[in-house]
Write a structure and sequence with these properties.
Helix 1 crosses helix 2, helix 2 runs parallel beside helix 12 and helix 9 crosses helix 10. The protein is built from 16 helices and 14 strands. It has three domains: 181 residues, Rossmann fold; 97 residues, N-(1-d-carboxylethyl)-l-norvaline Dehydrogenase, domain 2; 146 residues, Roll (Thiol Ester Dehydrase, Chain A). A hairpin with a 4-residue loop joins strand 13 and strand 14. It has 495 residues and is of the alpha/beta class. The termini are far apart. An eight-stranded mixed sheet has the order 3-2-1-4-5-6-7-8, sandwiched between helices. Strands 9, 10, 11, 12, 13 and 14 form a six-stranded antiparallel sheet that branches. The structure holds 1,4-dihydronicotinamide adenine dinucleotide (NAI) and ligand L46V6VHR. The site of 1,4-dihydronicotinamide adenine dinucleotide has 24 residues, from helix 1.
Amino acid sequence: MTRINKAACIGGGVIGGGWIARFLLAGIDVDVFDPHPEATRIVGEVLANAQKAYAMLTGAPLPPRGKLTFRDTLEAAVGDADWIQESVPERLDLKRKVLTQIDAVAKPDALIGSSTSGLLPTDLQRDMRHPERLFVAHPYNPVYLLPLVEIVGGEKTSMETIKAAMERLPPIGMKGVHIAKEIEAFVGDRLLEALWREALWLIKDDICTVETLDDVIRYSFGLRWAQMGLFQTYRIAGGEAGMRHFLAQFGPALKWNWTKLMDVVDLDDALVEKIGQQSDEQAAGLSIRELERIRDENLVGILQTLKRSHGGEGWGAGKLLKDFEQGLWAATDGGEKLDVAQPLRLIDTKVSPAWVDYNGHMTEHRYLQVFGDTSDALLRVIGVDLAYVERGHSYYTVETHIRHLGEAKLGQAIHSTAQILGSDEKRLHVFHTIYDTANDEAIATAEQMLLHVDAKAGKAAPAPEEVLSKIRPIAEAHTKLPVPEGVGRHVGQKR
Ligand SMILES: NC(=O)C1=CN([C@@H]2O[C@H](COP(=O)(O)OP(=O)(O)OC[C@H]3O[C@@H](n4cnc5c(N)ncnc54)[C@H](O)[C@@H]3O)[C@@H](O)[C@H]2O)C=CC1
Ligand SMILES: C[N+](C)(C)CC(=O)CC(=O)[O-]
C-alpha cells in the first residue's frame, strides 16, 4: 500500500479540520495554513472530538499521532507535503487563486486534492502550471469518521494522479470512488441536493416542520441507506421478483406530480428565519459541539455493528473498518516492547455507545469481546496471527470464566492485561483482567483455556516450536508473579 508521508491542509474549517484529524490519527504529520484568527482553537476542538470517537471506534493499535503544525503562510504549509488538501470556502475565484499558489510551491510529485462539493476540476485547474496533479477529493462530514472520498479528475488530470490518489486512501481508513466523468456536484451531492431542494419546499409550503422531516428520514430510509444504499434496498422492495418488478410497479410514479425537483425555492429572509427558528427548537439547547459528539457516537455504533455483520465478515463501511483494523494489527511489532515481567497490557480502549445496555453500563457480551480481543492480541504476540491461521492452525478457546467486579460506563477508558498461568504443547491457560484506566481498579476478570488446533482436521494438535518458543519466556516470567485472586473460581463458590 502506498502511504502519505506528509500532508498539508489549506483551510482548517469544518472540512479542513476533519481532514487534519483523519491524517493525524493515521500517524501522518500535517502542516496547516488558515488565516482565521481562531483556527488553532477550532481545529483543536474538531481533533478532540475525533480522538474521542476513535477511542470508541477501535481497539486496534493506532499509530502514534502525527505532528500538527500551524504555519503563517500557505507556502510554508505546503513545504514538502506529498498530499495537499485544499478546503477553502466554495468560491471558484478563491479556489483557483489558492490552487495556483499551491501549484507554484508544491513538490513536483505532490498530489493536490480539492474538497469542493460541486465545482468542476477542469475549472479549478485552469490557471495551474501542473494541472495534471489536481483532482477533486470530495469527502463527507465528519471526514474523520465517514470513509468515502469522491475522486474526480478534470480534462488535464492524469490517470497516474487518479491512481495514486485512490491508492493512498485505504491506509488512512478511507474508500475512494473514482467518478469517471466530471459533473457538477459529482454523485453524492447530486443526490443530496435533490433531497434538500424538495425538503425546503416541504417546509416553505408548511407541509411539515424541520423536525418532522428529519424524523421521517431517521426513523425510516435513513437507517436503510447506511447499510445498503438505494438500489439494493429497492431490489429487496421488489419482493422475490427483485429489481425488475420494483421498476415495473413504481416506475410510473416517477411521472406523477410527486416532485418540485427543478424548481428552486427562494431562500428569502422569511424562509431562512422560519427554518432557523424551527432548527433552534429542534436542537433543544444542544450546542453544535454537543450535537457533533452525539452524531459521532451514533456513527461509531453504526460502523461497529456493520463491522460484525454478514457472519462477522463485515458489510459496507463496516467491512472497510475491519480491513483497516487488520492493517493496524499487522503493522504492530509482535510485542517486542512488552514487559514480560508483568501481566501483558494488550488492549487500551473506551466503552463504545454500542456496548452499553439498558442499565447504562457495558453489557455482558462486550466483556467477552474485550477478553476475546485480549486473547487475540496475546496470540499475535506468540506469532499466531492471520497469516498463521491461514496456514491451517490456530488456538480455539475451550473454556471461559468471567467475574464482574465493577462497572464500565459509556466513554470510560479501560485496558486489559493477560497473564499466562500455564502452558504445554497444546494448552494455553490464561488470566485476563479489565481495568478502569483512570484508577487501575479491576472491573472484570476472565480465566480461559485455549487449545492449539489443526483447523482442517478439526482437532487439537501440538503447537510448533516457533510458537512454543515465544510462549516459553513469557510463561516463565509469569510464574514469578503472584497467582491472581480469583484463579480457579467457579460459580457458587464461597469467597
Ligand atoms: N461543510 C460541509 O459539509 C462540506 C464542505 N465541503 C467543501 O469543503 C470546503 C470547505 O468548506 P467548509 O470547511 O465547510 O468551510 P468553512 O467555512 O468551515 O472553512 C473554510 C476555512 O477556510 C479558511 N480560509 C479562507 N480563505 C483561506 C485561504 N486563502 N487560505 C487558507 N484558508 C482559508 C477559513 O478561514 C475557514 O476556516 C468547501 O469547498 C466545501 O464545499 C465538502 C464536503 C462537506
Ligand atoms: C452541503 N454540502 C454540499 C457541503 C455537503 C457535502 O458536500 C457533503 C456532505 O458531507 O454532506
